Amino acid sequence: MEMCQSLPLDCLISVFSLLQEEDLIRASTICKEWNYAAETPWLWRRLCLRRWSFCNVSQLLSDTGTHSWKAYYLRRSHLEMKMKTGRSYADYTCNSLRGHKGKIVGFAYLTGNDGCSDVWKSTPVVCSASTDGTVKAWDIHKGVNLWSSPAQSPMKDITVDPVQSVVITSDSTGTIKTWKGASGEEVSSFLSGFSETTLLSFNHKDSSFLMVGTILGSLLVLTCPALCEVSRHMVCDSFRLNLLLSSPDKKWILAASKENFNSSPKVFYSESACYPAEDEDSLCHSLPVTGCFAAVFLPSHPARLALIQSDGLFRNKTLTVFDLTLKESKYKKEPQAQEVASFGVELSHSSDVILEARGSSALLVADGNHLKVYTFKGDLVASFEDHLQPITGLCVDSFRVVTASRDLSLRVLTWRNDPEHGLTLESQYHLLGGSLTRSRGFTNVACDYSSIVASVESLDGKDVLKAYTFDF
Questions:
Q1: What angle do CA 353, 392, 91 make, to 5 degrees?
Q2: Under 8 Å between Cβ of 71 and 95
Q3: Which one, of 126, 45, 136, 57, lies nearest residue 453 by Cα?
Q4: Is the bond preceding residue 390 a cis peptide, omega within 30 degrees?
């Protein structure tokens, strides 16, 4: 007790800043003065930002009247412990979302848990589209269908605009529609004239847009949700434009065809595509590679783009990394791409390769039943062969990686910062999706911070969504 009284408050706080969570909690039980110092919000804020540097500070601080930094730290670390152990009887619940009478062509989170203040109030909603011609919204915590659209032509693709709470779909007749996320009420319709389209929702300067890749290689830019055409661009004539990505900072759009080994991917400066000026061409650049079939922007390096390309003749493919810039002079602006890394990767199923990224340097390649992790310079960090059949989906965030497979299992892996070897990935456990006698396995997977949703291809033609929710 004498030691408690001998140190002033600011000195105690300074000493406590050297402690980890367990020691700080233990110190708070020693005496009244230590408890007061250990409850200092600055200490817990420091622990939060050191462990989760991506915390949305402003969002969390807006709830300080209800929740504290300490409460946030304890709640979120408790959740991560459950996601790391994955015990079905204690850590998560699983709901089967049934109702579609056809194949599920896609699904996406309309609302979800982002890992910030939503750890207290998240009610994730997932929307799905099917060849049965319907769009459905699901409360994945309760496992119930919130609304379903009237049946129409078979659906081809789905995306969402969470900012406006809008769902966007395309069907086999070339009709693109927007729906209110809260009710399923139809908002607008656009006749594209193309039987197959690829959709990408896009927000720029407080406005929402929809990028549409067509079966004949053109890129359409529409307003959202009104679906008025803004601009149109040719990317790869007569080949399906089926690879659309936007950079994390929304300054760049990648458009490519995975079907033409002779075409080059194009990057568009998004402002020129969304706000075209009269008598001026869009600002786009053809990358100096051909045969692109997988690509990703690195989350913590918004202008860094990685892609895998091939000439279609050899098993060995090349993974190339570019940094994108906009060169400005007195009279013009010109997009440029500087190659910063390139290395060979051996792949066995090039048409099914999935490429994802973490941070500013980690690249994940799923090929067949293999998952490999590279640095962007080409160093192999880790390799896994946890699945018995090909990987069909890959979801990556700052805490974990989830793979979906035709063997009807999801594999959960978690990131760890090793003091000696740096960032590493550790395989943890399987989540099972049911019986292979009734299905052909998982076809895709998506995650928010506290849940996992995956689609199952059923043998009876009525696909199902499986939702795994980790309890706080």
A1: 130
A2: no
A3: 126
A4: no
| Amino acid identity at 240 | R
Written as tens digits, the pLDDT of the chain (472 aa) is 445 556 777 888 788 888 887 888 888 887 888 888 888 888 888 888 888 765 555 555 555 556 688 888 888 888 888 888 988 778 889 999 999 999 999 999 998 766 555 566 668 899 999 999 999 999 999 999 999 999 999 999 999 999 999 999 999 999 999 999 999 999 999 999 999 999 999 998 889 999 999 999 999 999 999 999 999 999 998 899 999 999 999 999 999 999 888 889 999 999 999 999 877 778 999 999 988 989 999 998 889 999 998 866 655 689 999 999 999 887 888 999 999 999 999 887 666 899 999 988 899 999 999 999 999 899 999 999 999 999 999 999 989 999 999 999 999 999 988 777 778 899 999 999 888 889 999 999 999 988 999 999 999 999 999 999 987 6
Burial of 459 (0-12, 13-18, 19+ CB in 10 A): exposed
> What does the block give as tokens for 77?
């670390």
Cβ neighbours of residue 61 closer than 8 Å, sequence gap 6 or more: none
Burial class for 37, CB neighbours closer than 10 Å (0-12, 13-18, 19+): buried
What is the number of alpha carbons within 13 Å of residue 64 lying toward its C-beta?
9
Contacting residues for 162 by C-beta, under 8 A, at least 6 apart: 109, 110, 111, 112
- Residues counted in the chain: 472
- Taking the CA atoms of 76, 79, 81 and 83 in sequence, report the sign of the dihedral they define: negative
Q: At what angle do helices 9-16 and 41-51 cross, to 10 degrees?
A: 20
pTM for the predicted model, two decimal places: 0.90
Of 249, 156, 260, 150, nearest to 203 (Cα)? Answer: 249
Closest CA to 110 of 399, 448, 450: 448
